[in-house]
Amino acid sequence: DAGVIQSPRHEVTEMGQEVTLRCKPISGHNSLFWYRQTMMRGLELLIYFNNNVPIDDSGMPEDRFSAKMPNASFSTLKIQPSEPRDSAVYFCASSLKDRAGEQYFGPGTRLTVT
Amino acid sequence: GEDVEQSLFLSVREGDSSVINCTYTDSSSTYLYWYKQEPGAGLQLLTYIFSNMDMKQDQRLTVLLNKKDKHLSLRIADTQTGDSAIYFCAETDDKIIFGKGTRLHILP
Predict the structure, then answer these.
(1) Contact (CB<8Å) B45/A100
(2) Which residue on chain B is closest to A4 by alpha carbon?
(3) Is the peptide bond before A81 cis (omega within 30 degrees of 0)?
(4) Alpha carbon B85 to chain centroid, angstroms
(5) Exposed (0-12), middle (13-18) or buried (19+): which is A114, by Cβ within 10 Å?
(6) Using one digit for the tens of pLDDT, what is the confidence trace for B25-67?
(7) Would strands A10-13 and A109-113 be described as parallel, antiparallel, or unpaired?
(8) Which chain B residues touch A if contact means CB-CB below 8 Å?
(9) Which of A27, A65, A100, B42 has the lowest CB atom count within 10 Å?
């Protein structure tokens, strides 16, 4: 298996622009997680899905952030409008639903908002 | 609420043992985990221990669990330059809670 795939790997955008991050989980995994990592705040869970349904979005910082999982093999995290403080590395991870502690992480998307 | 605490930095000489410590709050966690993050990469599951165990050994890695004190440690024997990374401790309840990570620096 190719592992969790994220795109793009790097994104540089201007403040106010819409940003869409993409994730393809490992085939057969039915839980998907979006994280944000910064030096200041460490690793933060933004939202997670079980069987394509959002279960906990309490970590989503503001209404500017939204996430969707239209099917078992694809998820997006959208920021609209983006702000400089959104600059971070965003990770997607997947797991089997009953083994949520055994997560497989993607390589991350490094987002820079100028 | 749940919380996982770790020291932020550890420096160890190459060839020595590294011991990374972690404390957690949720006594109902069934499993406790150690993840490793190398530069520019995502986290990778390193090992885990079931909560009714005291110790788990896997090659150079030894995990010790003191459930009474809610203390978890990861010992890396014969530390090599390739072990330089950030190590995250994690517990699970209904979702996984990560610590802030311990950056392991290897001295020549």
Answers:
(1) no
(2) B42
(3) yes
(4) 11
(5) exposed
(6) 887 878 899 999 999 999 999 999 998 889 999 999 999 999 9
(7) parallel
(8) 31, 33, 40-45, 48, 88, 90, 92, 95-96, 98, 100-101
(9) A27
Do B20 and B105 touch, CB atoms closer than 8 A? no
Dihedral sign of CA atoms A95, A36, B39, B71 in order: negative
d(CA B41, CA B58): 23
pLDDT tens over chain A, length 114 residues: 689 999 999 999 999 999 999 999 999 999 999 999 998 888 999 999 999 999 999 999 889 999 999 999 999 999 999 999 999 999 999 999 888 899 999 999 999 999
Tokens describing residue A31 = 């839980």
Tokens at residue A94, please?
A: 């997947």
